[in-house]
Each structure stands twice: as structure tokens, then as C-alpha cells.
Design brief:
Oligomer: single chain
Radius of gyration: 25 Å
Helix content: 25-40%
Bound molecules: 2-deoxy-2-amino glucitol-6-phosphate
Largest sheet: 8 strands, antiparallel
Number of strands: 26
Shape: globular
Mean pLDDT: 92
Low-confidence stretches: none
Length: about 600
């Protein structure tokens, strides 16, 4: 959702801002804009729609300067029009502001400003911030400090003022902001991917921080003006990992990066010398482990599917009961929280508003708090005491792929770590560790399926407005994930269902040629699922089956078999999801859709 970039340095700022915004496009947006300090004025350009429209405006109306702000907006207050795009300015055109988040006292502030005679020119909450800053007195920093108590809600704001042509001021409460420390230049952004090509030295702002960013340095203060020291961190992500690297789309590149991402994640957790898991990352003290009786996994979207798989892993390996919740439900359902509970927030971005709220609820209720997260330094990272970093690297495609599979590996590692700490380890642990080490190879084999094999699947799915994805047991969440992938990027309706439930309703959908994708398990439930597929076939529907092994026993029920290597059943979800990711990708490409930036979606959902 919304992206921010600010720059103070020696280079012409427009190319820097456009480049930063291009790197933030993946977050999802529907308008864009920038403000440049030029010759004692704040000059603003904005455009509805894609960044190309803003680039066109910048070509027609060139701006020059070395200090400025850029923004990609995902509409909340007001339609995605040019008037509502950011930056927003005050009445005098002195202050320009970009903003991620939502002001909760929008209506009251708007009424107050209107009553005071202020003529508002947009429907945004952001303009209210610009107007308040414009009406305050003193330097931009003093104006921000005076305005902060008036703002209720979530905001990451970056502002400039024409009277201070060497300064950018950034402040946050909720959505993240990171300052990049460059050579003769400093930047501020909502996301490190916008900075990586210029610097890897960053400092993360905390909620309530205000940063005064100048070319020769950065000063961070709190809302009362007192100084705050924030550590400088050096990121280990390199800019090339956020580039397409010869692939047509980020999503395809990220699908193919999974063997490496899994390898790195496994290496981070395993103690290969003793064939066990290194639990340091989880950091639970012995008395906390002794108290531990149950777990809650909270997450959204694809991360929630990872949680559903994690429940199987953790319950089987530790014997502890696990509840899985959508974070957006958990935060409002009064869950039973206590100090015998470990709550794990699973989030790729570490910035999903609902997941953060659920984690805060758990922390305030006295639970131990952990996160499985792909973003060191993110809000979830800083909130949790126990942290497992997935090593997926930057994930740019809105449809999550490598973040998901690394989450599954993190969950299995967490289960193994807890099992060992609880004194339950046996020979199975060493076997699972060995399986984890073999997993990247299995993924490479799964990715090596001849693309031509997908053609029939692609044809069937793209030719139908609806499809059904079936799974059982630990592979049921993979059916959900396969359906979500298809929906997200192809805009075709797909529904994930536990195969045994099909008879209780969805069977009514089946007719000649209706596509049913089945994720077929090994073990006792295989025959059950084959029985379900017979019912599907009997109604003339088409069956696409993903299965471990060669799938010879599926020949009579499936129109297409996508075979993947057989691994331990607890790890089979990691391998089985790959063909479903590729299938969704190929359908979206065949339909000519924008795979990496699907309509209406945002990579990081920072509002409720
Ligand atoms: C995944 O393909 C989606 N884009 C979405 O469901 C995502 O997983 C969800 O918004 C949660 O994001 P998070 O992992 O960053 O918290």
C-alpha cells in the first residue's frame, strides 16, 4: 500500500524520486506524485493511474532541484484522482506532505478546518496534515511537534517547506519509515527496497519519532523534542535481489528463487553438527518453556495458509494444541490469552495492520510473543520478543510465493525447536533435519516440470470463470493457497475446499469441463481423495492433480497429473504448492494480466 520516498542530496531529485517510486510500485497504488523544492517554491506534480502518467507529466513540465518527496497512493479517503493524489499542500503552498495510513479523527479535523475558513481542495486526510502544518508557527520541525497531538490514527508522513530548502522532516505512528544514510545524501522511505540501490546503511524510525533529514546528517527527536538515538543497521539484502534478473515477471523469478530461499532459511536455523535446530532465534527462557501449554498462530492471507500448515507441524511434533486465527478476527474476538500461551504473528512484510494489532493484543494479555517474518527491523520484528527471520529476500510480486514456502520451513523449524526444548526429541528429528537439507533439491526437481505440461491446465482454468481446489489434511491449506494465487493474479474465481466437504455443497457446481484442481496426499487419505475425484469425474468435470511420485494411480481420474518429488509428509506442502504457483502464473500471463501488480491489491496491507 502507498509508498514514500524522500531525498536530500546533490543529485537532480526527479530521477531519484521516480526511480524510488518505481521500486515501490509493487506495493500497489492507483495514483502518484512528487514535490520538489525549486527556486524558493514547492512545486508539485501529480497524476492518477500508473507511474508512467506521472513520468509523462514530469517530461512535459520539468522540475529541477535536489530536495523532494515522492508518493504512490492506494486510495482510502477519496477516489484515486489527481486532486486526491499526494503530495498535498497547505493553503499558502508552502508545505507539501506525503502520507501513508489513515487519520481516525479525519471528520472532526475536516469540520474544524472548514469552520475556520480553510478551503479544502481534496477529499484526503493527508491535506488536513498539510493544512495544520501550514497554519502552525516556526520551523518545519516545530510545526510538526505542534501538530502531532492533533493527529489520531496511523501515519507515516514526510514533509518539506519552501522556507527550508535543505530539509525533509519525517514522522510516524504506525506505518513504517526508514532513513537511508548515503554518501553526501540522505533518503527516507516507507520500505527499504526504495533505498537499496543507493545505500544499505539505514535507521528505522520508531513510533513517535520525528526525523530531520538534511544532506549532512539526520537528527531524530521524540514528540516532546528530546533527542532519540536509533542504531544504524547495515542491510544484507542487495539491490540485485529486488530486480527482475532476466525473468519476465518478479513472480516468476521469485517462484524460481525458492530452492535458494529455502536453502538459506534452513541454514539459518539448523545446527548441522548435531542434526538439530538452533532455537536461539526463538529465545524462550526455560521457565517460559515450562509454562508453555498452547499456541495461537495469527496471520492474514497467504501467511494464514502457512499458519494452517504450521498447526499440523506443531501439534504433531510437540503435542501442544494450536489455534489458527485470521488476525483481523482474532483482534476482535476476545481470545483466551495468558502466560501459558505463545502467540506467533506470521507475516512476510512485518507491517500488516491486522497482524500487528493481534500481536499487540497478545502481548498486552501477557502471552509470550513471537514472529515469523521476512523483514528484519519491521514493526512485527520489533514487537515480538522471539523472532524467526525467513530468508526469502525481498519479495516484490504481490502474490506471495517464496515468502510462503520459507514460512513453512520456519514453522517446521520452530516445531522441532520446541519439541527438543520440551524434551520430546527422538530419531524422527534427525530424519526431519535431513529432509530439510534435501528440500532445496526436491524444489528444484518440482520446478523442472516441462512447462508444456501446464498447457492443458492453463487452458482449462483460463476458460472457466470458476474452479474448485481440493485437498485433505496438511495439503488442504495448499488447496486454499493455490486458489488464492489464481484469484489474485487472474481475477478468476477459485475456491479452496477440504475434499471431504465437497459433497456438502460445492458438488452442485460441477458440470462438464468445470476445472477441479486436487492436491493429492499420500497415506490413508489418498484413497478417500481418489474417491472424491471419482465423484468429480462422474459429473464430467475436469481434474488436474498435483501428487507426489509419478501419479500412475491417478491416470483413471485425472486429465492432467503434475508430479512432484516425495518428501516427508510434513514437508510435502512446500513442494506441492509450486505447481499451483506456476499454474496461476501461466493463467495470468495467458490472460495478458499484470502479474506483479494485480488490480486492487497491495503488497503490504498497512491499514485495517
Ligand atoms: C499473498 O499472495 C497476498 N498478497 C496476501 O494474502 C498476503 O499474504 C497478506 O496480505 C499478508 O501479508 P503479510 O504476510 O505481509 O502479513
Amino acid at each position: 500500500m502507498c509508498g514514500i520516498i524522500g531525498y536530500v542530496g546533490g543529485d537532480e531529485v526527479v530521477p531519484v524520486l521516480l526511480d524510488g517510486l518505481r521500486r515501490l510500485e509493487y506495493r500497489g497504488y492507483d495514483s502518484a506524485g512528487m514535490a520538489v523544492l525549486e527556486g524558493g517554491a514547492v512545486r508539485v506534480l501529480r497524476a492518477a493511474g500508473k507511474l508512467a502518467n506521472l513520468e509523462q507529466r514530469a517530461y512535459q513540465e520539468p522540475l529541477h532541484g535536489t530536495v523532494g518527496l515522492g508518493h504512490t497512493r492506494w486510495a482510502t479517503h477519496g477516489a484515486p484522482t489527481e486532486a486526491n493524489a499526494h503530495p498535498q499542500t497547505d493553503a499558502a503552498g508552502s508545505v507539501a506532505v506525503v502520507h501513508n495510513g489513515i487519520l481516525e479523527n479525519y471528520a472532526a479535523l475536516r469540520a474544524e478546518l472548514a469552520a475556520a475558513g480553510c478551503r479544502l481542495r481534496s477529499d484526503t486526510d493527508t491535506e488536513l496534515i498539510a493544512q495544520l502544518l501550514g497554519a502552525a508557527a516556526g520551523s518545519l520541525l516545530e510545526r510538526v511537534l505542534a501538530t502531532l497531538p492533533r493527529l489520531v490514527g496511523q501515519y507515516a508522513v514526510v514533509a518539506v517547506r519552501r522556507e527550508e530548502p535543505d530539509t525533509v522532516v519525517a514522522f510516524r505512528n504506525g506505518p513504517p519509515l526508514v532513513v537511508g544514510l548515503g554518501d553526501g545524501e540522505n533518503l527516507v522511505a516507507s520500505d527499504v527496497t526504495a533505498l537499496l540501490h543507493r545505500t544499505r546503511r539505514v535507521l528505522f524510525l520508531e513510533n513517535g519519532d520525528v526525523a530531520v533529514v538534511r544532506r549532512d546528517g539526520v537528527r531524530v527527536v521524540r514528540g516532546d523534542g528530546s533527542a532519540a538515538a536509533r542504531p544504524v543497521e547495515v542491510l544484507d539484502w542487495d539491490a540485485a535481489r529486488a530486480e527482475k534478473g532476466g525473468y519476465r515477471h518478479f513472480m516468476l523469478k521469485e517462484i524460481h528463487e525458492q530452492p535458494d530461499a529455502i536453502r538459506n532459511t534452513v541454514l539459518a536455523y539448523l545446527d548441522t553438527a548435531r542434526h538439530g535446530v538452533n532455537l536461539e532465534g526463538l529465545g524462550l527462557a526455560p521457565d517460559e518453556l515450562a509454562r508453555l501449554r498452547r499456541l495461537h498462530l495469527v496471520a492474514c492471507g497467504t501467511s494464514w495458509h502457512a499458519a494452517l500448515v504450521g498447526k499440523f507441524m506443531i501439534e504433531e511434533l510437540t503435542g501442544l494444541p494450536v489455534e489458527v486465527d485470521y488476525a483481523s478476527e482474532y483482534r476482535y474476538r476476545r481470545p483466551l490469552i495468558g502466560d501459558d500461551l505463545l502467540v506467533v504473528g506470521i507475516t512476510q512484510s512485518g507491517e500488516t495492520a491486522d497482524t500487528l494489532a493481534a500481536m499487540e493484543l497478545a502481548r498486552d494479555g501477557g502471552a509470550q510473543l513471537a514472529t515469523i517474518c521476512n523483514s528484519r527491523g519491521s514493526s512485527a520484528w520489533r514487537l515480538a520478543r522471539s523472532r524467526l527471520l525467513t530468508q526469502a529476500g525481498p519479495e516484490i510480486g504481490v502474490a506471495s510465493t517464496k515468502a510462503f514456502t520459507t514460512q513453512l520451513v520456519a514453522l517446521l523449524s520452530m516445531a522441532l525447536g520446541l519439541r527438543e526444548a520440551l524434551g520430546r526429541a527422538d530419531h524422527r528429528d534427525a530424519e526431519l533435519v535431513a529432509e530439510l537439507q534435501r528440500l532445496p533439491l526436491a524444489l528444484e526437481q518440482a520446478l523442472a516440470i516441462d512447462p508444456a505440461r501446464y498447457e492443458l491446465g492453463c487452458e482449462l482454468l483460463s476458460g472457466s470463470a470458476d474452479s474448485l481446489y481440493l485437498g485433505r489434511g496438511i495439503l488442504y491449506p495448499i488447496a486454499l493457497e493455490g486458489a488464492l494465487k489464481l484469484k489474485e493474479i487472474s481475477y478468476l474465481h477459485a475456491e479452496g475446499y477440504p475434499a471431504g466437504e465437497m459433497k456438502h455443497g460445492p458438488i452442485a457446481l460441477l458440470q462438464e469441463g468445470f476445472p477441479v484442481v486436487a492436491v493429492v496426499p499420500d497415506g490413508p487419505s489418498r484413497d478417500k481423495l481418489l474417491g472424491n475425484l471419482m465423484e468429480v469425474r462422474a459429473r464430467g468435470a475436469a481434474v488436474l492433480a498435483v501428487t507426489a511420485g509419478d501419479g500412475a494411480d491417478l491416470a483413471h481420474v485425472a486429465d492432467l497429473v503434475l508430479p512432484v518429488p516425495r518428501v516427508d509428509p510434513l514437508l510435502q506442502p512446500v513442494v506441492a504448492v509450486l505447481p499451483l504457483q506456476l499454474l496461476a502464473y501461466q493463467v495470468a500471463v495467458a490472460l495478458g494480466l499484470d502479474v506483479d501488480q494485480p488490480r486492487n491489491l497491495a503488497k503490504s496491507v498497512t491499514v485495517e
